[in-house]
Design a protein that fits this description.
The chain is an all-alpha fold. Helix content is 69%, strand content 0%.
Length: 102
Amino acid sequence: MKGDTAWQAEERAQAQRLGDIIQKAIQDDGIAIAAEGRAPMLNAVAGALVNVEAAMLAAIPDPRHRKALRQAMERARPRALAEAMTRDNGKVQVITIGGVKQ
């Protein structure tokens, strides 16, 4: 983007590359699960992403740096969601079993 520093451009390029790899792995696994006659579960995807995020944050030894990265991720989520909603990401079928948890 205009005005980016070299490290910001590199960060964005790596984030895009990793995001594409993760998204493809999720889609491929969903297809494999469906081929087995099972229903892919979005909750399982969310749980896996949370676990990976937690492991990444846990690998940062300095609590201040860990907190700063966690806060940066929290600040980035609304924009990432807004941008994702402008693209065709496909649609999933949501099935609620046993009612909505509150």
